Known about the structure:
Layout (H helix, E strand, L loop, with lengths): L5 H18 L15 E3 L1 H10 L10 E8 L19 H18 L7 E9 L7 H14 L1 E12 L6 H9 L4 E7 L3 H6 L7 H13 L5 E7 L6 H15 L3 E6 L4 H8 L3 H26 L1 E4 L5 E6 L33 E6 L4 E4 L3 E6 L12 E6 L2 H15 L2 E3 H8 L3 H4 L1 H10 L2 E2 L5 E4 L4 H8 L5 H11 L6 H8 L7 E2 L2 E7 L2 E6 L2 E8 L10 E5 L7 H17 L8
Parallel strand pairs: 2-3, 2-10, 3-4, 4-5, 5-6, 6-7
Antiparallel strand pairs: 1-13, 7-9, 8-9, 11-12, 12-13, 14-16, 15-16, 17-18, 18-19, 19-20, 20-21
The structure holds iron/sulfur cluster.
Iron/sulfur cluster (SF4) binds next to loops.
Amino acid sequence: xxxxxxxxxxxxxxxxxxxxxxxxxxxxxxxxxxxxxxxxxxxxxxxxxxxxxxxxxxxxxxxxxxxxxxxxxxxxxxxxxxxxxxxxxxxxxxxxxxxxxxxxxxxxxxxxxxxxxxxxxxxxxxxxxxxxxxxxxxxxxxxxxxxxxxxxxxxxxxxxxxxxxxxxxxxxxxxxxxxxxxxxxxxxxxxxxxxxxxxxxxxxxxxxxxxxxxxxxxxxxxxxxxxxxxxxxxxxxxxxxxxxxxxxxxxxxxxxxxxxxxxxxxxxxxxxxxxxxxxxxxxxxxxxxxxxxxxxxxxxxxxxxxxxxxxxxxxxxxxxxxxxxxxxxxxxxxxxxxxxxxxxxxxxxxxxxxxxxxxxxxxxxxxxxxxxxxxxxxxxxxxxxxxxxxxxxxxxxxxxxxxxxxxxxxxxxxxxxxxxxxxxxxxxxxxxxxxxxxxxxxxxxxxxxxxxxxxxxxxxxxxxxxxxxxxxxxxxxxxxxxxxxxxxxxxxxxxxxxxxxxxxxxxxxxxxxxxxxxxxxxxxxxxxxxxxxxxxxxxxxxxxxxxxxxxxxxxxxxxxxxxxxxxxxxx
Length: 571
Ligand code: SF4
């Protein structure tokens, strides 16, 4: 155990209190994605990061996944809040295909030496792509990427637009895991939600087509809370689905309404929706647990708004209440999280809004030119660099959101070291604050907490600048360089104050140069309610001869920031 600086501890406590009050963090996993300034990268810049990616970064072999996002659906369901489009013109599909293939071709040289274990086609509903387009895209992936023999291949499909021709094309391309959205078996309710009149006949047809081709790895989704349904009806439909078709996996989601959904189905009343939703939230999970027992499925109580039932294929980790809190997938199961794989993970995301994770190097999102799928031009990318610590933060907040125990062996398998090596201050703070209990060196055992209090514990892992960035964002004080430039104008790079000169702006910082040496001025959002002018903290040690003029520069900048405090900064 190492000592912890009491002043640092005090400052962090104040920061956490302000963060909790201002940002109201919804969930521990959310902390992994905070406070990053996205940069626009060309495909060549993304390729450079893939080229630097360690092919075998931890003490376990890396798991490498490819995700292709197909943002098209035959119609737009009224409850949907995903990225999706109706493919009204075949030209749009052709443009999408050309752009994805171009990106694969450009990235391919930097991806050599990575053995890809899975390919996942999601969306949207990839089955809206005609069979020949599916074939061309997957063939291009096979030509340019080194998939392991028998790589696992998954596809999401819309039961109403799947056809035997597409199915045969997919089988010939190696797809053996199929999932489709049922939501409800009531055709009228589906029609009312702009999904077409999809009932048990269409769903049964798809299950039969798959079964005739000896495909048994089929999963499906149901949605709890659709207008016009009751929790008992949905539970009955799930029972009927298992008894009739026995899918290997069922995900059940609790509906999160968009404003337009409330307007259309609940007269704009959140209270009416909440009253409708109450029985689903109350009786849905125990009803699913009972179904799991009845049919011999494992029930995963999941997190947030998702619940799962699945056939038992591996030794489950059973919690006190009979549920399985964490599902550690088989080696080749597709997932986007190293914490679910217990291995370093690379994820290559292609297609509108798909995300890539380059372990220890970067997280990046695929964008259409001008964010317009119909526009001409190559793909572009928005991302930020990450290091091992960022990936470890993501791992820890996902694991410790759901459980009290962190296995040191599992952590080492991914990151090659003890968590204290990457987070010495945070773990020392946990010791000092009584967050860690027990002395077993094989694990970090946290004191049991409510979900909300666990988020507060996890804040210690997050670099303070990221918490400040988010606080600033919530207060309308953007610390992005372009926002700072707008706020300080006409002061900016090149401005001089005596011997001090502003060299450049970076996220939350101004970099100043003096003949005796440089310093950075770090901007921090005010933590005191009512104040809106950022604090300025000097990083680096100015020479004694330059201190007085630096103080004057800080005063000038404070005045400039104060004068524009009411000016809305660009996001
Ligand atoms: S099929 Fe799925 S992705 Fe498409 S609109 Fe409906 S819910 Fe959204």
